[in-house]
Write a structure and sequence with these properties.
Largest sheet: none
Shape: globular
Number of strands: 0
Helix content: over 70%
Distance between the termini: 37 Å
Order of helices and strands: HHHHHHHHHHHHHHH
């Protein structure tokens, strides 16, 4: 995170050496470097860190609530619904204040997530929620394609860049617009984390421990919506961050629970977006590419590799335990516990 932050603040036109960054921050209005760093690069970096942390935490909440490592905002209709809520007024030429855009994104995300839950029987089956969410997300993406056909050339370029997720031309106003939603989401997220650890045991065990699994799953989805929708309203749907960050958090400490994974998932999400924004801004300079394209380009193969390596280790342990059991039955001294 420190390296990505240093590169984000230093690299570009004009180039500001790292040792001159403190002076540029102090003399914000006295030089071109100070204006560029404080008014363009710092808010963009802060927005990347905040957006990545929200997406990483939301991804962990969805995966733990549905007990599925593939449960991500992009496959539950949440991100697509939020993007549709923001893109529709732009195509229909409806003038709305910037402060209302998060509300439209939250409304679209609630509609997308609500359709998923209603079609899946209000979350009674986690696997049904995931499969139904993929269908709802596909339907909402088709609706977005219809909007793109209706849009004129200028709006089409804006919508296309927005749907890929972009941090271009973001200012302090975009950053400050996220804080009211974070003040609501963060306390709810802290209270939700212990319940997620109980939901991992299964619905029957959770009910035995006094947790109403269906209501807890609905509450988890609501918290994920509050985390995802304001970020999508500002940056667009930055893809696959909610998939990659939780897997990186689990890889660091496989034996932990959701309470310990949550801060690490948020931190890894911030790192992923901050790192991806550097090539998004500089790889094809002076043309900027959407940050969502880079997170998807890196996140998909990295996430698949993490899934494969995570599945390989339990299989090896099972094979070792099985061979130990065979040797124990044949009269050897090795037991299953020793093989493990």
């Amino acid at each position: 995170m420190a390296v990505a932050s240093g590169c984000a603040l230093s690299l570009g036109t004009p180039y500001v050496p790292p040792h001159q960054l403190p002076g540029a921050l102090r003399d914000a209005d006295a030089s071109l470097a100070g204006i560029v760093v404080t008014e363009l690069r710092v808010p963009r970096l802060v927005l990347a860190l905040v957006a990545g942390a929200c997406l990483g935490a939301a991804g962990l909440v969805l995966q733990e609530a549905l007990r599925n490592p593939l449960a991500i905002p992009e496959m539950l209709g949440v991100s697509s619904g939020a993007a549709f809520g923001v893109a529709a007024p732009l195509v229909l030429a409806v003038s709305i204040p910037a402060a209302v855009e998060p509300l439209l994104a939250i409304g679209g995300a609630v509609i997308g997530g609500g359709l998923t839950l209603l079609a899946a029987g209000l979350g009674r089956s986690p696997s049904a929620v995931l499969l139904t969410g993929a269908a709802v997300a596909a339907a909402l993406q088709a609706a977005l394609l219809v909007l793109m056909v209706m849009a004129d050339q200028l709006d089409l370029q804006l919508i296309y860049r927005y749907l890929l997720g972009s941090l271009s031309a973001r200012t302090w106003d975009d950053v400050t617009g996220l804080w009211p939603w974070l003040l609501v989401a963060v306390p709810a997220l802290v209270l939700c984390a212990p319940v997620l650890s109980v939901l991992r045991l299964g619905d029957e065990d959770a009910e035995a421990l006094g947790v109403r699994a269906q209501r807890a799953r609905l509450a988890a989805l609501a918290i994920a919506v509050v985390l995802i929708a304001p970020v999508t309203a500002v940056c667009g749907p930055v893809a696959w961050v909610g998939f990659l960050a939780p897997h990186l958090a689990r890889r660091l400490n496989p034996a932990a629970d959701a309470v310990r994974w949550l801060p690490w998932s948020a931190a890894w999400g911030a790192v992923v977006v901050a790192v991806a924004d550097v090539p998004a801004r500089l790889a094809l300079a002076p043309v900027e590419t959407p940050v969502g394209a880079w997170t998807a380009l890196v996140g998909v193969p990295a996430g698949v590799a993490l899934l494969r390596s995570g599945n390989r280790r339990p299989a090896a342990l099972r094979r070792a335990a099985g061979s130990g059991a065979v040797r124990s039955e044949s009269g050897g001294a090795t037991t299953v516990g020793e093989a493990r």
